[in-house]
Amino acid sequence: MNIFRIAGFEMRKRRPILLVAQSYNRREELDPLKRYADIYWLQDLDEGERARVLPQVEVVCSHGWPKSFDRETVSKMRSLRFFQAGNAGVNSIRFDLLDKKVVICSNAGSYSDEVAEFAIGLMLAAGKRIVSFDRQLRAGVYARQRLDDLGRRVAYFRGKTLGVVGYGGIGRATARMAKVFGMDVLAFGRHPIKDGEVRPLSGREGLSRLLKESDVVVLAVPLTKATKGMIGKKELAVMKSNAVLINVARGEVVEKEAMYAHLSTNPDFAYATDVWWPDKGGVESFSPDLPFLELDNFIGSPHASGPSAIISGRVGKGIVENLTRYFKGLPLKNVVDRSEYI
Amino acid sequence: MNIFRIAGFEMRKRRPILLVAQSYNRREELDPLKRYADIYWLQDLDEGERARVLPQVEVVCSHGWPKSFDRETVSKMRSLRFFQAGNAGVNSIRFDLLDKKVVICSNAGSYSDEVAEFAIGLMLAAGKRIVSFDRQLRAGVYARQRLDDLGRRVAYFRGKTLGVVGYGGIGRATARMAKVFGMDVLAFGRHPIKDGEVRPLSGREGLSRLLKESDVVVLAVPLTKATKGMIGKKELAVMKSNAVLINVARGEVVEKEAMYAHLSTNPDFAYATDVWWPDKGGVESFSPDLPFLELDNFIGSPHASGPSAIISGRVGKGIVENLTRYFKGLPLKNVVDRSEYI
Predict the structure, then answer these.
(1) What secondary structure, in 3-state letters, does B234-270 show?
(2) pLDDT at B190
(3) Is B188's Cβ below 8 Å from some Cβ in A?
(4) Contacts of A127 in chain B (CB under 8 A)
(5) What is the CB neighbour count within 10 angstroms for residue A75?
(6) Closest-approach residue (CA) in chain A for B134
(7) What is the pLDDT of residue B161?
(8) Distance (Å) from the C-alpha of residue B246 to the closest C-alpha of chain A?
(9) Triad B339, B340, B342: Cα angle to 5°
(10) What part of B 142-171 touches A (C-beta under 8 Å)?
(11) pLDDT score recorded for residue B11
(12) How confident is the model at residue B191 (pLDDT cuts 50, 70, 90)?
């Protein structure tokens, strides 16, 4: 509780209200925040309680955008000043519904090591054809190959080139792991990259060079106006015919139709993705409306790279740290620039 | 050609004959050996040529045991002194047919980095359920999970323990890569292990401790009398219920029936293998007679971890180096102790 003394009187500042929307149950992680705020859990509130609490909510902490947060509900949160996302990517936030005075922060960085490890897993599973081999063996259609033909189909990554598109936490962690495999790393980012271990690239030409020279490309950008569809027909056309493209960013960073056409006509090219295009309702869908799941050179996982960071506790730690900064009036981390999204 | 001068006379030593049996075609790799020997390729010889050449063959270089090398054929190679395997594992050699005076060398070490990279690929593909996810998504049976449940199912390997069984070239290379992922490494070997980066273990108790403490176990032993069936019911019983067992050694190192029973009753345990049990004819079979390929916690690849080392040229280099040692009369590498196999 915040207690002030003014002219000998003890003044109690009304404690801020923090509303938490999480689909998983690790409430004890937020216990340290009880020192600064009264915490309500969205799923606990019935209609009456919501009507009473919403106007007083100063801070929302949410993993994804809650389904119940429609225009009417959000408009009731008149005291809202701060929105802390549990996710690293904040593209699902309805920026149009949040007043401009509301500061929005992502939880970027809390998933970096976990997602990077998964990205390396997708690289190996795709490049070494582990998923495809297993499927063919199960179907009983695997045909024994001459050793040199088999060896040619199984990528060996030492000495190969990895291109990282987006050099934030995930990109840097992926680059670090790839270096250990003996890979040469090209890194593309918006901001100047100062990292002696990688070759930095920027601008349209930089991206084009990265795509041309890389054996593996990892997409690790946030989904913004600038990155939506950044990998389309032209970009795929300059890539190596046997490249592996890994997407741990968001489905829409890649143009769906262009990707399908490219995979259909380039059997040695592989697309391994943990993230998917949205359905008509805007929700990420694991059943794409083009038959990617029938292609041998497509590998999909159900947005599974990040959640292990919930279990390792890093996600909760990131949330608590930034909310503590907010309540203490300290500079915030990962403040989102709305202009990149709306 | 070896030319000697004795008392003013030029003496030509008869050039040794090297017979090569390779199912793949990279003949130019052996060109440096032409300085020391006349090279014949088994697949080029018709019956008459074979009858003429076999008695003169001093050296055989073979990838696997050639099908045509039956008792009668081998008995014709009266001049045979040296057998250089192209493989790292020599369990397929018919030791019973080779006279004791024939020195046998494996090509151990030439595949280490490639197989280790593949082993790490299997570890990630299994532990992160990449193969299983992709299969469920393709079948349309993947059920969305709560983020914490999903996070619990996807292994994150930083800080976890890797146990390496067999600390030769492949074992050491695997340990090195795992260290970079931030894993703690236990190493079990026949010989004393001097490697400050890992915790060495030996003896039956050492193996048992490794199996108990490891989150991931990689089998990287040669298949010998001592290692056949070394992972059976008792060994599996002490392992963690959600461990990942990787086999890049040989199928028979693991007891088939025990493995099947263990996978059937421990759904969180995974067996990811690149090597398979032999069929009744003794040939490694990708269609096991127990329905492993119907289990969700089994991952199989068709002995695909090594052949990329043929393409990278390391296999040919290993062969040429050791054969050169033989022709020059220098100490040989990877001499096989027959008593471990017969």
Answers:
(1) HHHHHCCCCCEEEECCCHHHECHHHHHHHHHHCCCCE
(2) 87
(3) no
(4) 121
(5) 11
(6) A300
(7) 98
(8) 13
(9) 65
(10) 142, 144, 146-158
(11) 61
(12) confident
